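User:
Note these C-alpha cells:
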Amino acid sequence: PLAQSFCLAGPDWQRGRSLALKNIDYETVAVNLTKDGGQQFSEEFQSLNPMKQVPALKIDGITIGQSLAIIEYLEETRPTPRLLPRDPKKRAQVRMVSDLIASGIQPLQNLSVLKQVGQENQLTWAQQAITSGFNALEQILQSSAGRYCVGDEVSMADLCLAPQVANADRFKVDLTPYPTISRINKSLLALEAFHVSHPCRQPDTPPELRA
C-alpha cells in the first residue's frame, strides 16, 4: 500500500530516504514550519503528531510520529535492504550513532529551540550545538566506520548523519576538523536514494535553495 508522509523537506529527510532505500511508494504532504505561523500547529496536523513536529508517517493503518520509530518500523515490516546489522554489536553501534544525532545534536538546532535563543544568537547557538556533537561523533566514527558509519553497509546511522551534515552546511559549520564525517557523507551522496531525497531537491524546496 501507498504510505503517506507528512514532512517539511529538509529537517526529516532520513524518513524519506528510508522509504526510498526500501523502494516503498509514498506520497509526501509538505508541512511548512514557518508559513501561517507554522502549519505544524494546525488542528489537522496535531491529530497526526501531538508533539506538533515533523515527521508523521501514515502506513499500514497507523500513524508514526518520530523518525527513528518510523525507520525501525519499516525495518521490522520491510527488512530488505537491511538498515540494522545482524551482528548485535554493530546493531548497537548503529543505534548509538543514530541516537547521538537524533537526540544529542538535531533537537538543539531545531526551529523551536532557535526561536527561544533569539534571532541574534541563532547562528552561534546552532554552530556550537553541531560542533559539540560532531566532536564526539567524529571520534566514535573513527572506530566504527568503514565506507559508511558502521562498516560497509548503509544503515539507520547513515540516514541520520546525512541530514545533520546538510544542517551543518546550512549553519556554515567548518567541517575540516571532521574528515571521517565528511568522507562518509560524500559516499552517501553518491547513492541515488540519498541524492534524490536531499532537501534541496524536494517539491516544496524554496527556489533559492534548490540544487
User: Anything to note?
Assistant: The radius of gyration is 17 Å. The first strand starts at residue 3 and ends at 7. Residues 122-144 form the longest helix (23 residues). Residues 88-195 form a domain with the Glutathione S-transferase Yfyf (Class Pi); Chain A, domain 2 fold (CATH 1.20.1050.10).
